Structures are given as structure tokens and as C-alpha cells.
Amino acid sequence: MAPKLPPLRGLAPLCVILLLAVGVVTSRRPEPYYGRLIGHLTQYAHGIRGTVYAVDESTVFIKGFAYDGTGPDAYFWVGDSPQPSPEGTLVPYPEDYSSRDPPILSAHSNTDILLKLPAGKRLRDIKWISVWCRRFTVNFGDVFIPAGLDPPRPRVLPEFKRLAHGLRSGNISVLDAKTFYIPNLHYDGAGPDAYFWVGNGSEPNPFGTKVPNEMGSLNPLRGYQGEDIEIQLPAKLTAYDVDWLAVWCVEYRHNFGHVYIPKDLDVPPALGQTKITTSSTTSKTPHSATNNCKEILDKRLQVRWEIQGDQVQITLSARLRKEQYMAFGISGAEGRPAMLGADVVVAYWDSRANQPRVADYTITHLAQCDGERGVCPDQRLGGSNDAVLVTGRQRDGVTTITYRRPLAAAEPSRDREVLSSRSQSVIAAFGPLNSRSEANAHSFMDTTRHDVQLDFGAQSDNACIGLAELDELGPGAWPARVLSGVTNFTARIGPAGGRRGYTPITGHPSWGIAWYINDQLIPEIYVERGKTYTFYVEGGDDRTNPARYHPFYISDSSEGGFGQKKEEEQRKQRVFAGVAYDNEGYPFPTAVGRYCEWTHKSVDQANASPTFEQYVRTLQLECAPGDPATLVWTVAHETPDLLYYQCYTHNNLGWKIHVVDPGTAVPKPGDQKARINAAHRICPFSSTTFVLVITLLNMAVR
What we know:
- Pfam families: At5g54830 (PF25489), DM13 (PF10517), DOMON (PF03351).
- It comes from Bombyx mori (Silk moth).
- Residues 1-27 form the signal peptide.
- Helices cover 7% and strands 35% of the residues.
- The chain is mainly β.
- A hairpin with a 2-residue loop joins strand 31 and strand 32 (520-521).
């Protein structure tokens, strides 16, 4: 008897309907689905039984197959004669046998069997399937193929719609109910939080589901240059359950491109028959005995893992400095990186003994261990060291240490359980060792700052490419660009420049694109009070495509995004150009023109480009039809000294506008001397101290 639900007091009828609708998720095809029914095996001898389905035109599935295994020379057998006969063709089972001759059929009891027809045969080429004894030419059981049988077959879809970040592909195929084949995939890899994404509705939206990439990983997508890949829907999700497949940026809720999945889909069931060779699968070479690997801490730490009975073996690899440790373990809270309450293992190379070391730590307080609380080795608090060293080495500047720890929490007050049934939050850090060779405090940049999920029960979750160099900040930022003495500007969209561009220059997060002013990445603009300036804006005019709709405006906000803010947040910004108000008092952007974007010729080459000039050579300008918008701005005398050019619909695309009085010395492009001299007149320090102060001030402004 179903439990009686309490009355839903205070809810409008519509809310009740929505609640009921959310609780019922149905597939467009009933499950389980095994393909088109062929029929039941007819038994003549040896207990043959089973139900036969057409999976696709060359594959059959036998549900609940039974055979007593006593026939001396029995095989699956197919043919096109009116009745089973010696003129048939042998169908090996299992298909991937290692002996010279196909194995004789063994005993089965209620076994599900997948049979692949040999020698290019298709179901339309045969009339029957039999269990046949070759030595005595006896038919133990058979089923006949119905006339006019139309097996399920893969469905070819259009290519990805091209919306952002150079995404494009060939025609996408739904190979079976869970598998998509994406040929000639191109994507610049510059989206900070992009994934394959499926869901329901008329357009891609935030209420979707991540789909693992071709390596089975849920890391953000890398760049692709014309690769053929195969991806599979997770868990019990099938192509019949979703309306679209997209490349979607989760953090910024943007659709880079998508393809719709038709309602009349009739593809093969996903029973393991789909095995294609793609440019992704041919490169899946294991890096070690276990093929689970994740790169964290800005790709500076590689974590490999494998469950071994009631233990998990973990290998940490990093470019460590002398007297530096690496730490990894279970977060103190699920869904976020929490040091307090975490259970971690600290691994390091003991330079005095020239040996690797591992220690089990408990974090009871965010302070140095005082013997009673803090970041302490379990043994120092009277507990046990549950981390057992397996091996370690130092080679080519990389320290690699392997250890083993129990899955269970050996000491519940100090340890946390390692789950093998689902993902869980993990944390990691680098830091210096103190005089006791214990972990000292680490910097903010040297710890996990966002939730990192790891599935310890995974079998082939490998997204490792290679460790970053020892420089923990990665490649250096390009020098800030300057535009001065100019009254006309173009404003276009382009890539943010990865770890050399927007974020290291501004200190703000980026979602992969930024303003290019006069084809320079977020230059600092100098304007004079009383003068008039013209901006020719090419940020997009298609309101239906947020990835290509970036109206330009000028504000005192270093973040921007005026149009996405609530009214109380809008009141905190002062807008100086690019926004008007309608008769009802609602704001709207005025600088809305055609879309022009600097796009990657291949994948993002920012990290490999020492200068911005070299980087620009890897880009190409693509413009949609139409005209730019014109924004004319006369700088009032009361305008503040510092403003920002921004995007009306998104945060963090622009940078600084310096407002000066007429006659004020300003930097010229490529010249920082004027800024330094001006600051030095205000703060006459020694040159060494002055450089330090300027650096600290720049960090504070960011």
C-alpha cells in the first residue's frame, strides 16, 4: 500500500502540478529495450531456450540463453537455406577468442549473449539462427528471421550548431541508445568550465547533465582539432531521454553549440556492441598499471588511484622543491574543499635520508600542530599512521610517491571513509616542511579552491596530459596594453588569453572571452575630461544567442554585467555611457552591433605564446553580416579618475579607463615610465622599495 501523502497546504495548484511533474521522469522508449524481437528459440535437444532480438542489422541479442553443454561439437550457426543445414556459417562465441579455432559452445543457464554476424553478413542475408552440432549435423534448436524485419540502425544527425569558441563538427551519429559519434570535432578549449551536456527543453539550459568525454572523464573539455570521438551517456540515461546534446559552460551558463535529438529516434539498444576506432580511442594508452589519473592544483599534481581489496593505492606526482610536501585526501565537507575535518596524507622526499615519506594527518584546527590540535600527524595525537609507503622515486625533476591506505575509517575520530560507490570531494595542497618535517601552512594558490570530485571506484578515469612546470603560477602574464592619444576605438570579442591574459592581468575570473579594443586584449585606455570619444562596437546583436550578445557600456564597476544584476545591485553601479532607460524606467543597452570575434585557428596557443603579438598570429577575425554600433561619449569634467569598459550582459570581459585632466602626462603604448614617474612624485621611496610598493598596489587594485 502506498504511503499517504500529507496535504500540501499553502501551495497553489500550479505548484502542486509542477511538483508532481518533476517527480515523474519517463523515457520515450520502455525499458529494458533489447532491440526488435525476432522470436523464441525452438528446443529440439539439450535444453535450448532463449529469446532472440535484432540489435542492429548485424548483431543479435539472446536473452536468457540456456544449453546443457553436452553436445560434442556445437556452435551458433546461421544460413539462408530453407532449414538449418550443414551449408551454414559458424558464428564464434565468444567473439574475441584467443585459440586458433573457435571454441565449442559451453553450457549456459539463463545467460545474456551478444552475437556479431561474421564475414560482413547482415540479418537480411540469413533466414535462421541455430545451435548446430557440426560432427553429427544435428540442429539442437533454432529461430527463423521474420520476413521484412527492419532492425534498429544508427541515426545520423546534423553537425553542432556553431555558436562560440570555434565549435564545429561533422554530422553527429547516434550509434546506439547511449553512444554518440562526433567526427571532425573542433573546439578551442578556452571555455573555463565546458562539458558535453544533455537535457530537455527547446534550448540547452542549466538543468542538464554532464556527459563524460571520450576518455570517460568529467574534467572540463580540452581543445579539439578535427578529432573523431565517441562519448557515452552516463548511468541509466539514454538518447531517448534527452532532447539535445550540447557543449555547455556550467559556470557561466553558456551554450557553445548544440544538436537536437529527434523524437522519432529508433537506434540500437546499448548492449556493448558498439566498438568503433576513433582518433580518441586509439590514443588511450595507459600511463601506468592503473588507468585512473586526475590532474589538480592547476595541473601541478597528478593523482593516480586503484582499489585493491579493502585498500586504495594512491600515487602522487609533482615537481616539488626541496623541503616541500604534497598532500592529498578526503575533504572535511562534501561538495566543497574544506581543510577542517579533512583526512589527508602528506607525502614528501626526506632529503637527509634520501627516502620518500608518507604520514596520515588529521586537521582539527587551521593552525600549526601544537601536539593537541591543528594540522597534525595522527601519530602525534596518539593515533596510528594508516598510510603505508609502497614506493617512491625522483626522476627528471618529478617526485612520485605511492602509498596505500584503508577504504574504511580505521579511526573514526580521525579518519574519513574512501567511497567506492560514488564520487566524493577531495582536497590537495603544496607547502613547506617545518623543522620537525611536518606540514607547515601553505599559500592560497597552493590548495584546492574549488570542489574537486574523485570517483575512487572508477576503472578508466584518465584525464592526465602532463605536469605543469615548476613555476607554480604557470607562464607569465603578458604586459598590460595601453591606448592613449586615440579618440576612435573598435570593440570586438576575442579569447581571454588563458594563463597569460585576462585573469593574470586583472585578477578577475574569466569565462574564456574578453574585449579586444583596437584589436588589443583588454588594454588600459586613457581619456581626457572634456573630450569626445567614439567606440565602434561589434559585440553581437542577437539577443537569442547569449554567447554572441555582448553590448558595450562604461561604468565604475570592475565586474560589469549590468543587465544581469538585480535592481538593488544596479543601483550600486554608476553608468557613464551605453545604457538608456525606457518610458517605464527599465534599462536597456544602446551599443549593440554586429558580432566580430577573434577566433583560434586551431586550439588556444596562449601558454605557448611568449608575447601577445605572437598570440595574435594564431587568431583570425570572423565577422557576421551587419554594421557596428556607434557609441559616442563626451567625458564630463566631474567624471571619476577610474572607470571600466564592460559587457552589459556578462561579468568580467573588460578593463580600465583612466580619466585625466587635459595636459596630464600619460603612458604611450608600450611605455610604463609615465605611470612610474607620476607615482614616484607622490611616494618618493628608494627605487627598490618603490618597485615593491608598485607591485603591492597593483595586486591590491586587482
